[in-house]
Amino acid sequence: MSESESEIVGLTSELVQAIHARQLRLFGGPSGLRDAGALESALGRPVNRAAYGSVDLAELAAAYAFGIATNPSFIDGNKRAAFLSLITFLGLNGIDFLVDEAEAVVMIRGLSAGEIEEAGLARWIRDNWPTPAAPSRDP
Asked: For the whole model, what pTM was predicted?
């Protein structure tokens, strides 16, 4: 499941900040970007991984989430921003990634706390990868 870098749609700082702002409107919390450099660093992580080896979308999504969750850029809502960035990245690349909410919370909290590594998150993403829909048989 290796994708070439030119085909992959990445996340921008503006998009992640918009994701963050929307989740704050929905769920509350203080707004604000604590460290723009931390966000740029987090967003550079998957780009760097793609430049230095063959990676798949699960690894890149995990790199986005890992960078955002473990290098807090925002005053509040970093874990939510990490998970929603993971979902958004996969969606932008044609993957409708749906997982159990409680399971996602455990994974992202574990990632943020250092209990789950980036590779473990990538495995979890692969384990929950959507299966292609069977073609319909119209009579």
From this structure: 0.87
